[in-house]
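Quarterly update, task 2.4: zinc ion-bound model.
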Amino acid sequence: MAIIYTCRHCQDTVGKLAEQYVDTSLLGWDYLTIEEKKEMIHYHSNGDISIQTICESCQETLGQHPQYHELDYFIQ
Ligand SMILES: [Zn+2]
């Protein structure tokens, strides 16, 4: 089983973890609503989990242009 982090903005693979067990509280999932989890976390039939996150370059862009972030939410 692997956990694959994908940037939700540019679709880049941010990172990949091969873990048997992941403490989701460490990932900050406790702060997410169920709806957000459904949207961000996708389970694959082979046991892999993909998680929509944000890569460093997009994070930087959003940090410089916070209005992009609002736009992104608006589109969704
Ligand atoms: Zn990105």
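Highlight for this quarter: DSSP finds three helices and four strands in the chain.
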